Amino acid sequence: MAEVEATARTNGERWSLWKSANIGIVLSAFALLLEMNGHGYEIASYADSPNAGTIGNLVGRILAAPMIFVLIALVRNFFNRQQPKSSKSAGRGALTFAVLFVGIFAGLFAYGQFYFSRSEAISGESRSTFINATQRSCVQKQTSISQAVTEQQIESYCTCVGEKMADITTYKQLGAELDENAMRELRQKAEAISSTCRPQ
User: Fold this and answer.
1) Is the CB of residue 111 less than 8 Å from the CB of residue 61?
2) What is the CA angle 45-50-51, rounded to 5?
3) Which of 2, 55, 73, 170 has the fewest Cβ atoms nearer than 10 Å?
4) Cβ contacts of 32 within 8 Å, gap of 6 or more
5) Cα–Cα distance between 118 and 172 in angstroms, integer?
6) In sequence order, which residues have a C-beta less than 8 Å from that of residue 110 and are 6 or more positions away?
């Protein structure tokens, strides 16, 4: 009987904004987990190289759902102004939100560190992104220096270079800042690959 009365009393209250925000941030966490299955490289890149832009992007992803849920609660409460205020503790709700927010952020940065610590060759989205970026850079360079070749030949050559470079690139190399020795080694590999991709 007491539970029924408590439920009835809760149903007659205005919605708690912090509870709405907490529901939203939990949904944001699940959405990020799902997104990692298809866009893990993008999220890991943002988390592994924090700056104003990448942090802002991650904050936006985390706070989008809570803001929507709070807005819904505000609209609902506006049309139910006669109902009593929510009995939920605002302080407890705010603390829960802060803990969830920090936890999600820490999880994202840990994911970024793990993603770029692996020694296997890149695959999936990271491989496709790497090949596309390498191919675009190659096409721009070859177009500016090659006059006696066709556009199709350049495209074919640059696709070959991008794919072969991806074959020898690991996640750890992809996420690392290259020093002088690493740059020298990369140039040597690129030159070797370049010779094998040029039409004979």
Assistant:
1) no
2) 120
3) 2
4) 43, 61, 62, 104, 108
5) 6
6) none
DSSP, res 22? H
- Residue 148 DSSP class: S
Q: How far apart are CA 86 and CA 134, in angstroms?
A: 56
The series of mean pLDDT values per 10 residues for the chain, 200 residues long, is 41 85 95 83 86 90 95 91 82 94 94 91 89 89 78 88 90 78 77 79
The alpha helices in the chain, defined as continuous H runs, are 2-11, 17-48, 52-78, 90-115, 124-145, 151-167, 171-175, 180-197
**Buried b / exposed e along 97-110 (16+ C-beta atoms within 10 A):** beebbeebbeebbe
Give SS3 for 123.
coil
> pTM value?
0.74
Whole-number Å distance between alpha carbons of 100 and 88: 18
